[in-house]
Structures are given as C-alpha cells and as structure tokens.
Amino acid sequence: MKSVPAHLCLALGAGGILLAAVTARPQTQPLGHATDFTSESYFEAPHERQIKMRLSGAEALPLPGGLLDVRQLRVETFGEDGKPEMVVRAPQCTYAPLDGVANSAGRMEMQSGDGKFRVEGEGFLWRQGASSLTISNRVRTTIDLPVLNATAS
Questions:
Q1: CATH classification code of 6-143
Q2: Would you say the pTM of this structure is higher than 0.85?
Q3: Using the 8-state DSSP alphabet, how is residue 65 labeled?
Q4: DSSP code of 12?
Q5: 17-21, 72-76, 88-92, 143-147: lowest mean pLDDT where?
Q6: What sign for the dihedral angle of Cα 134, 140, 146, 151?
Q7: What is the residue extent of each domain of the chain?
Q8: Sheet holding 101-112: strands in order across?
Q9: Rounded CA separation 121/3 (Å)
Q10: Distances (CA, A) of 28 to 40, 42, 71, 95, 130
C-alpha cells in the first residue's frame, strides 16, 4: 500500500474546506431597514467613473432570504455618455440584491430618458444583469411624436 505525503493531504483538505466555504450561501438577513437609500453600479474601463445604473428607494425593509421590500422604487439607467436612458418607478417591489432582480405584482411605470416613450402596467420583473424589464398585465404604451404640419395646396 502506497502512502500519501502529508503535505498533499493537507492541501486537499484545505481545498475541500475552501470549496465548501465558497459554495455555501448563508441565509443572512439585513440588520434593519434603510430610508432614502441609493445603490449604484458603474461601467467598466474606460468609463469606470460613469454611472450605469442607480437603484433608489424611500424605504427598504428586510425580508427572509436576504430579500428587501422596497418602497418608492426608482431605477435609472444611463449611457456611457452619461445621458439618461430609462427610469422605472414603482410604489413597492421585492428586491434580491445578490441576484440583481426586482419584481412586483403592483403598478409600475417606465419612461425613456428623453421622456418621449412611456410604458405603464401592473406586475413586472426587472433583471439587472440581463438589462431586461418584463411587464405582465394591463400594459399601456405612449409614444410622443412631433406633430407634422401639413398644408394642403
């Protein structure tokens, strides 16, 4: 029978402990509630100083599983040039900060950065990583187009 060197056993044991620590996700809860909070993410270099997305709310209450009950949600996205692209507002939603996902069965509204395109509805799912917004019910879209001034001859 061949023996395994002690340093190899120690390395394998340490690797197993490290793997267990990395893959384990404790069910931690936030310590309390927050008021008037803002969370921002930034573009990668060379635009690392430019805000890509800002999520804010009037109040966030902790929920089981690390979720947050956010009141007066506001999500703003920006282009690399700093110009606003989209603003989403909702009176209430559930936000999973670790997953970057917000959803609600309630009312929401979205407006383009220039204000010419608006969507409102009930029920939404926003995925930060995929930059996607799904609106599920009673969707209403408004597009403001310039009025054409046609004259008849």
A1: 2.60.450.10
A2: no
A3: G
A4: H
A5: 17-21
A6: positive
A7: 6-143
A8: 34-42, 51-62, 68-78, 84-96, 101-112, 117-127, 132-143
A9: 68
A10: 22, 26, 21, 15, 25
